[in-house]
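USER:
Working in pairs, take the chain set out below, taking as long as you need, and write a paragraph about the fold.
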Amino acid sequence: MSTIETRHIMQITGDTKISEIFAEYGDISEAMMSLGMKGVDGNRLRRFLETKLTVKWAARFHRVPLDKFLELLHTATTSQGTEQS
């Protein structure tokens, strides 16, 4: 008998905190870098800001349109979720 594991898919919006994404999917910075995002690798400032920073502000900080940033996050979290299964 096989067990099918279902994973809750988090709804990520501009108001979602980066820390909530990390809590759900782990550190996705490596996946984001593989998709072309620069400067998202681990450092102390990022770790401090991720608790306060929303997706909308992260997109502004990286100078990426919000819809493109949301698309990148969706791709990164999908690939991260697949790796954890």
